[in-house]
Design goal:
This protein has about 260 residues and is an alpha/beta fold. It has ten helices and ten strands. The strands form two sheets. Strands 6-7-8-3-9-10 form a six-stranded mixed β-sheet, with helices on both faces. Strands 2-1-4-5 form a four-stranded antiparallel β-sheet, covered by helices on one side. Helix 7 links the parallel strand 7 and strand 8. The protein is globular. It binds adenosine-5'-triphosphate and magnesium ion.
Length: about 260
């Protein structure tokens, strides 16, 4: 379970990215976080895995106050939290399976990793993870021979192989075409259901958020302005999250400003 209690996050430059956040997310929930650019979505996710530290409040994950963790505890904790990025973050000049294996045996010496000298039983774990996202047949391909969608599935397999209890994903489908985006979202959904995995996804595509997530959290200027079932999201809710259309600059105004 993830629990935010009165959490504030202000960056050193004075920007308050999270303002009094209170949330409780249970094991096995599929949550989409939506909001305008700069609303605080990435900050929220990155505080959970300690990429960023909160300034005030309490952030508990599975009853552990994550801000109290230090050094090796943070590294061990991070292994429980899978993280997926828009840019996949893979080593593209090596094989798919080697990318997954690095997360199965992070403690292996660098030269064994480079030479691909991984223990056999670990290879089985990596292959199982690739099977779960439907790209077992690509195990021995080089990553740079794969499409964007396939690369994101490798990233997902790598995360699964580390056996996390939560997967955080920051715009995982933002650079994919609409059809491939759905293939990847299907993977997230299947993993969520089959493994009772908690999944938190930052996503700009509202329609995908509503289709796939059970729960939507809308953030505006660092505050939670909606938290509820995706099936209960109405146009009024979207206006609350994104602002009414009058607040968005109109193209004509932009053209005038240029003259
Ligand atoms: N490392 C940083 N240092 C200072 N300010 C930051 C930093 N990261 C984010 N911010 C600021 O914090 C606020 C929230 O940013 P955040 O990246 O969390 O938004 P976001 O909702 O993920 O936006 P996007 O949809 O564009 O990814 C913004 O005002 C941003 O400029
Ligand atoms: Mg972001």
């Amino acid at each position: 379970m993830i629990e935010f209690i009165n959490v504030n996050k202000t960056y050193p430059n004075g920007v308050t990215a999270l303002n009094n956040i209170n949330l409780k997310i249970d094991q096995g929930e599929f949550v989409a976080i939506i909001g305008l650019s700069g609303a605080g979505k990435s900050t929220l996710i990155r505080c959970i895995n300690r990429m960023h530290d909160i300034n005030e409040g309490t952030l508990n994950v599975d009853d552990v106050d994550v801000s109290k963790l230090k050094g090796k505890q943070v590294r061990d904790y991070r292994r429980k939290i899978g993280m997926i990025f828009q840019s996949f973050n893979l080593v593209t000049r090596t094989s798919v399976i080697n990318n997954v294996l690095v997360s199965v045996v992070p403690e292996l010496s660098w030269w064994r990793k480079i030479l691909g000298l991984f223990p056999k039983d670990k290879k089985v774990i990596a292959l199982e993870a690739l099977d779960k996202v439907g790209i077992l047949d690509k195990a021995y391909n080089r990553v740079d021979q794969l499409s964007g969608g396939q690369q994101q599935r490798v990233a997902l397999a790598r995360t699964l192989a580390q056996n996390p209890s939560i997967i955080l994903a920051d715009e995982p489908v933002a650079s994919l075409d609409p059809v491939t985006a759905k293939v990847v979202m299907d993977d997230f959904k299947r993993i969520n259901k089959d493994l009772n995995m908690s999944i938190l996804i930052n996503i700009h595509h509202v329609e995908l958020a509503l289709e796939y997530a059970d729960r939507v959290i809308g953030i505006r200027k660092g505050e939670v302005v909606y938290d509820g079932k995706s099936s209960d999201v109405t146009q009024d809710v979207l206006d609350e999250i994104y602002g009414s259309i009058t607040e968005v600059p109109h193209m004509d105004d932009l053209e005038e400003a240029k003259v």
